[in-house]
Amino acid sequence: MKKIITPDASSYSELLKRPVFETKSLNDKVQEIINQVIEQGDDALFELAKKFDKVSLSSLVVSEQEIEESLNLVSDELKSAIQTAHHNIKTFHESQREISKPIETQTGVLCWRKSTAIQKVGLYIPGGTAPLFSTVLMLATPAKIAGCQEIILCSPPNKEGKIHPAILYAAQLVGVHKIFKIGGSQAIAAMAHGTQSVPKVYKILGPGNQFVTAAKMLVQQNGTAIDMPAGPSEVMIVADESSKASYIAADMLAQAEHGVDSQAVLVCSNQKILDSVEEELEKQLAVLPRKEIASQSIQHSLSIVEPDRNKQLEIVNHYAPEHLILSIEDVEEFTDKVVNAGSIFIGNLTPESLGDYASGTNHTLPTNGFATAYSGVSLDTFVKKITIQKVTKEGLKKLGPQVEIMAEAEELIAHKNAVSIRLKDI
Amino acid sequence: MKKIITPDASSYSELLKRPVFETKSLNDKVQEIINQVIEQGDDALFELAKKFDKVSLSSLVVSEQEIEESLNLVSDELKSAIQTAHHNIKTFHESQREISKPIETQTGVLCWRKSTAIQKVGLYIPGGTAPLFSTVLMLATPAKIAGCQEIILCSPPNKEGKIHPAILYAAQLVGVHKIFKIGGSQAIAAMAHGTQSVPKVYKILGPGNQFVTAAKMLVQQNGTAIDMPAGPSEVMIVADESSKASYIAADMLAQAEHGVDSQAVLVCSNQKILDSVEEELEKQLAVLPRKEIASQSIQHSLSIVEPDRNKQLEIVNHYAPEHLILSIEDVEEFTDKVVNAGSIFIGNLTPESLGDYASGTNHTLPTNGFATAYSGVSLDTFVKKITIQKVTKEGLKKLGPQVEIMAEAEELIAHKNAVSIRLKDI
Questions:
Q1: What is the location of CATH 3.40.50.1980 in chain A?
Q2: What is the ipTM score, two decimals?
Q3: For chain B, which terminus, N or C, has the lower number of CB atoms within 10 Å?
Q4: Looking at the whole model, is its pTM more than 0.80?
Q5: Among this protein's residues, is B306 annotated catalytic?
Q6: Residues of A in contact with B220 (CB under 8 A)
Q7: For residues B402 and A85, is the Cβ–Cβ distance under 8 A?
Q8: Mean pLDDT in residue range A116-124
Q9: How does pLDDT run across A268-304, given as a tens digit for each residue?
Q10: B231-375 is classed CATH 3.40.309.10
Q11: C-alpha to C-alpha distance for B199 and B347, rounded to whole angstroms
Q12: Could you give the count of Cα atoms lying within 13 Å of B122 in the half-sphere of its Cβ?
């Protein structure tokens, strides 16, 4: 682990720099797959399933029967946990509904917004040995609350041509309309452009490997909306004497087990905390199933000793962490001053894991510094806000002449005429 | 003008298709300019001003003196109109502030969101003979309300090395922090990457020609957020017997004067309305200063006769117009059912021009069908919402075990440990 003691503010940029990945050559490969899906539709998807997923599918769609079977393959214990998570996520995201009331910006000029669901959305859930049912909950729950009319989900099949039952269980619990056995960049291409089986959607969401990420960025160039740009997961922890070394180490390792490129950054008030955390890290790492991955990730992690609260804050806002754990005493004051972060976890008893699964906040968050400009997924992600205006005679009489002046100054005489022709009549 | 009578719903896709522009070769050229700005900074900007704007600049920044001078060059009449517009835009966008209150998703588990401004934003305002001060108001006003700490503006200088005084007036009225004499894709590159003079921003907003648009899409690929993808401006008008042909024609021409690629689509209940509109179009076109442009645009415009309200609605939602003017009788009911549109103008007395300048709604809207997934610019465009959670002992006791089960099912044992280690202590 890299350790820095009270660095100068001028070095923050260098110190907090994220690794940069080369994407150009990847883009060409992924664009080829996208083109293949555009040209050959379902045929391409069957072929690519053979090539990449090593499976010969009879159908791209998960059948009703497969979904019903999955209900028996998930333990009651896990079902109940998933239901709890769903309840909390639903409760928090339902509270994000906007109530818009008309505003009279001047007499006779009424403006308001109405939220409408994005009608068709596509969710991507990565495959692999572990089933990411939590991401199904995080994406489908707000989509359902928003009222999206068509919610489809793609996930790569395993070698038996199946999708993990826990994913199917979560999808049917929330109300996903159709599930497809399609993985990788071909899934993104299918949802962006549509095929015989897969409906074209307006927005695509969800995590994925570098191929999926590249495909999402490429289809975005052609007008399909995406949730946000992706990057490796990361956590920043700010700790002082009120924190507990074993908790901090556990939180760092939870981040580190995601992958060797995950980042865990510790900002603590003194060297003693850092030493205790290191000791705990060693102890906890030893018994971790994914210790290979986690230890590599921890190796290139960063710890900064900085006693000054304002500088700690500057470091946080400079880094703009995806996850920010604050194990400090004056936590409310500090939280108020954080301007760049995806999600904040307050105090010793709020580990990131809770938000990853079930506190109710969304775990799809801006990483890689994107928290400077992006929010995490929320109800907002699934709605558009249409503005509406209605002007009365009185309103037009007052506002019209002003608009005529401005339209003329911008040399848009037809814009002016559209007002003048009405003013003459009233 | 293309005219279609009661088309079959199966033909809507073909009928309402927008023209597609080839962008690949443009991207290469624009990427070169971006690279030049990254490598040479200010030097590149001075050189490109010579090359494209035909001016040898002494400074990239607009001086205090230039801004003060501009105040004397704008007529009091125009100043007053701009102030009215600013007032209405400010009033409407201020009403978009979100008040977030903590939600207890289950006992002891508190979640909430806080809105924070994107700290650094860059606005682009195109040049040309007509000064687009209205766009300055539309972008800078919500940025200011959001509390963005650094709001910069780039606009190409004229051959005298000046920016139009109306743009400078609007910028200082709203409170833009710094104005630069930089145009085209080099302006986007400078704001995305930063130079000696131009600060790097997190999000770039504003309209522009195809070079600007291409540059925005390219810097987005590298992580700079943008307002939305761009396309030619467009209006759809739904009209029945309650409408007035002269108003409809005026509104279509207001759209048509923007450029030869602008689209005006009329959906009306019967042939008689269409005939009257055509007659009016001819009459009004004849006296329009931009009749060359407008008549070309009108030529490739589309009119659809469709008496059925449900089918009219289907056409609207299929096209997803940037601007939607509803001059019909049962307008509230119709408005409720619109799901895809940028901004709606209700009734005979609400021409699009009012919203373009001064009703209070934003005129930066999703075009080219992007209203299916994107909203127009609003206060939301300039804020991020950070989620926050705080869990009590009781909350952790109840929720912790559920999270342990899910983390284990996803094979993320360090995630589980972060909960277990705390549960042991309480």
A1: 24-99+116-226, 231-375
A2: 0.96
A3: C
A4: yes
A5: no
A6: 220
A7: yes
A8: 98
A9: 999 999 999 999 999 999 999 888 999 999 998 999 9
A10: no
A11: 45
A12: 27
